[in-house]
From TrEMBL:
It comes from Tolumonas auensis (strain DSM 9187 / NBRC 110442 / TA 4). One of its GO terms (molecular function) is DNA-binding transcription factor activity. Residues 7-63 form the HTH lysR-type domain. Keywords: DNA-binding, Transcription, Transcription regulation. It comes from the Bacteria. This is Transcriptional regulator, LysR family. The keyword Transmembrane does not apply. SUPFAM superfamilies: Periplasmic binding protein-like II, Winged helix' DNA-binding domain. Belongs to the LysR transcriptional regulatory family.
Amino acid sequence: MFRPKSTLEQWRIFQAVVEYGGYAQAAEKLNKSQSSLNHAIAKLQQTLGVALLEVRGRKAYLTDAGDMFLRRAKLLNQNMQELELLAHNIHQGWEAEIRLAVEIAHPRRPLNRALQNYYPISRGTHLQLFDSVLGGTEEFIQEHRANIVIAGLVPKGFLGEPLSEVTFLPVCHPQHPMALETGLLTSEELSQHLQIVIRDTAKNPKELTGWLKAEQRWTVTNFHEAIETILSGMGFAWIPQHLVEGFIQRQQLHRIRLREGNERKIFTHLIVPAPERLGPSANCLLECLRLSHPLTASYWLNNKKSAEVELSPPTTAS
């Protein structure tokens, strides 16, 4: 096994001398004597056989080699800091891993905004993100296979907070026979054409009436595969508006006009299957998800303000 000749403390001192602009300044910041810092750097350079710093006047300057080693030293010190922080967080009950399951119809933009806000405070927690569909999403909730779930339906016995409104539109290729119709189509006429549907990720999927009415249907894994199939000229599908509006504007896809039920709307919900098991990292992610979605952000902020008002001591009249 490799045994290092240099120490982490030597690399920490080397970085400090450079960043604070000299031995005296670094000694003050590190609460060490200047002579101990001089000795540590001299020993490090001797061990490596490479000059890292040169002193001119009262200031230390990086050599070309030192500049390259400094980048590696910063990474080394950062990794050690994160490693010890991770151990501390686990000791304090901070989760090593959390699982988030998301219904694939849920818009990704606010979700990604939440993840961007969560990352700096995640403290090294490993996040597992699962895409799910219909019954598969319900299984994540019922079987407690995820800490947090974003679902289209709230199963009986669980509570959910509305996150986003999702509008589904029926679309086909601009050259598809349905796109060339001048009048409005009925649902019966629609059902005569090939429908592209998304595979339910449940162990034992159930077909939901109203969504799978076509006699001919092809099943794909996700909405992006469905869009690709339709772009090739085959079939139609109900796709979330946020995924197809660009294609419609560029006239790459055609929005099918129906006599009734021209669009379908659902709400996605934020669900915590086992609130009593939620740790501090999952709670941080939960708050980021709430604040990144307009439907819950105002409600959540108002509730927090109300709680702060209720908890604050009453003022006495002068």
